[in-house]
Amino acid sequence: MTQKIYLNGKLVPREEARISVFDHGLLYGDGVFEGIRAYDGRVFRLSQHLDRLYDSARAIALKIPMSKKEMEQAVIQTLRSNGLKSGYVRLVVTRGEGDLGLDPNNCGKPVVFIIADKIELYPEELYKKGLELVTVATKRNIPEAIDPRIKSLNYLNNILAKIEAGLQNMSEAVMLNKDGYVAECTGDNIFIVEENVLITPPFYVGVLAGITRQAVMELAREKLDLVVKEKVFTRFSLYNADECFLTGTAAEVIPVVKIDGRKIAEGKPGKVTARLIKEFRDLTKREGTKI
Ligand code: PMP
Prior knowledge:
Blueprint: E1 4-7, E2 10-13, H1 24-28, E3 31-39, E4 42-43, H2 46-59, H3 68-81, E5 87-94, E6 111-117, H4 124-129, E7 131-135, H5 156-167, E8 172-176, E9 182-185, E10 189-194, E11 197-200, H6 211-222, E12 227-230, H7 235-239, E13 243-248, E14 252-259, E15 262-263, H8 271-286, E16 289-290
Parallel strand pairs: 7-8, 7-14, 11-12
Antiparallel strand pairs: 1-2, 1-6, 3-4, 3-5, 4-16, 5-6, 8-9, 10-11, 10-13, 13-14, 14-15
Bound molecules: 4'-deoxy-4'-aminopyridoxal-5'-phosphate.
């Protein structure tokens, strides 16, 4: 069966899903997107993803040409028509076709497309062994320039950090903000555990408001009875943490065991992390909008 792509209100075969070379999403990274997951017939926290999409769009003064309700239906329709009960959804809204100038006022209607596909999972072994990370020289965008809360189509900041990690034969980078505070990884939020307190950087440091981040903070409070704090911290706290893990739609909750050559505690995934991996997986089975 050929893959069906949702494009501006229609489901079209993959080969016919084409957009203009004059689209400002392509020419300037002018647009917003979401990465969403479906688990066993349910879309996880779809309304939170759509809220974030519409907030990102508003922040760049882009009016999405359909309501959230219509967008929800479009996501579900795309999954259904591809026969997917579990998978990954990429939802993109671009500024649309314009001319070679920057001015968004010269663009026509925003373009909306949705791709539903199988998900490439991290090897299960990584959840047992944990990841090794490096901090990189490229700083996270400053909120005063492009706020990292905007999930925009311009991911060069993150890609540059990913390239730097690759040059050191590492798969993932920790990004600091311009003041040296820990922000996030290239596509995941970061947490540390310090004496039974769960800590993650606040938004103003320059991080995306991760949907998984939010879910994990809730689970830590409700199921693990942990104190959860959004607090700034430096690399010193990373190196001296009891535990460290990342959160994201694709990765879910994944342990980190080494950063910049320093082992985190004993260099093994921690107990809190292991419990949160389980609690999060349970949550994805309970919650979600039916496909
Ligand atoms: N930070 C960045 C920069 C990301 O791209 C992502 C993934 N979309 C995340 C964090 C994690 O967010 P979420 O849990 O919503 O996938």
